[in-house]
Design brief:
Subcellular location: Membrane; Cell junction, Adherens junction
Number of helices: 4
Number of strands: 7
GO cellular component, one term: cell-cell junction
Distance between the termini: 8 Å
Oligomer: single chain
Main location: membrane
InterPro entries: P53_induced, PMP22/EMP/MP20/Claudin
Helix content: 55-70%
GO biological process, one term: cell-cell adhesion
Largest sheet: 5 strands, antiparallel
Amino acid sequence: MASSVSGAEEVRVSALTPLKLVGLVCVFLALCLDVGAVLSPAWVTADDQYHLSLWKSCSKPAASATWRCNSTLGTDWQIATLALLLGGAFLILLSFLVALVSVCIRSRRRFYRPVAIMLFAAVVLQACCLVLYPIKFIETISLRIYHEFNWGYGLAWGATIFSFGGAILYCLNPKNYEDYY
């Protein structure tokens, strides 16, 4: 968007482009999904006899009506999974705050690259977490009943996908398309 000032001088005003706004919405959704994934009580469930989250593991013997719960922070792979997911969530939070601040001030372009880099780093951390979790779960915990990865695990994948989408949108060069808006 260009406007003329005092006849001959032209000033460029940085407008918020729709793709950056959609990127900000993607980052916000990723943040919300990450919070849901971290707080979820159901990453793995098995026929109302076993529940595993990032924080605790609960099992109920078939003959009993009471659940026995233990902390999952005793094994290395579960601590690593939690650390990778929380690290990615922290980077998503930081990139959301930087992107939000960049919307409020005039010089937005200089914040696009750091936001995209933080989001790509969050995607790498969370993808490592989401690949590590089922591999180590199947390797270390032997359930003789049908089990499935539940909605908490799915929320974490959703957060990773939205983070990747936001990172792609923040990588797009606004110089190529901002004259059309």
